[in-house]
Specification:
Major role in the synthesis of nucleoside triphosphates other than ATP. The ATP gamma phosphate is transferred to the NDP beta phosphate via a ping-pong mechanism, using a phosphorylated active-site intermediate. By secondary structure, the protein is α+β, with helices and mostly antiparallel strands. The protein has 7 helices and 4 strands. Bound molecules: adenosine-3',5'-cyclic-monophosphate.
Length: 139
């Protein structure tokens, strides 16, 4: 049975013109785009989205980075899409993410306290439901 995940093209990805490339990879893999919207995040939204990282040393700079420009929020749908998109995205650190993945092919380290790694993908069905509710209220 199909499930849904929340994908974000973060401000670095939007700024670099990679939104279309990320959508292309999601569709080329065979997943369906259920919703797509450019969102200017607010501190309130980010505090909820990143609740599990509150208190970590990079939290402040993570929120600041996510406020630095628009984010493309995407709901992707398909069988095992949560796992499948995380596989497409690659490891968190873009320097060592495997080539062939979004982060491995398109990302690298920058100066700054926060890893700019182009995309986010929900890590579980519970996270996906919570995050879709935050970024697409009413969906
Ligand atoms: P993501 O996994 O989507 O959500 C948390 C984000 O915090 C992560 O992407 C990176 O952008 C950032 N991040 C995670 N770990 C670190 C770290 N150790 N140092 C700096 N930034 C991090």
């Amino acid at each position: 049975t199909a499930e849904r995940t929340l994908v974000l093209v973060k401000p670095d990805g939007v700024r670099r013109g990679l939104s279309g490339e990320v959508l292309r990879r999601i569709e080329a893999k065979g997943y369906r785009l259920a919703a797509v919207q450019l969102v200017h995040a607010t501190p309130e939204l980010l505090t909820q989205h990143y609740a599990e990282h509150a208190g970590k040393p990079f939290f402040g700079s993570l929120v600041e980075f996510m406020l630095s420009g628009p984010t493309l929020a995407v709901v992707a749908e398909g069988v095992r899409v949560i796992e499948g998109f995380r596989s497409l995205a690659g490891a968190t650190d873009p320097t060592t993410a495997a080539p062939g993945t979004i982060r491995g092919d398109l990302g690298r380290a920058w100066d700054g306290a926060v890893m700019q790694n182009i995309v986010h993908g929900s890590d579980s069905p519970e996270s996906a439901a919570r995050e879709i509710g935050l970024w697409f209220p009413g969906l």
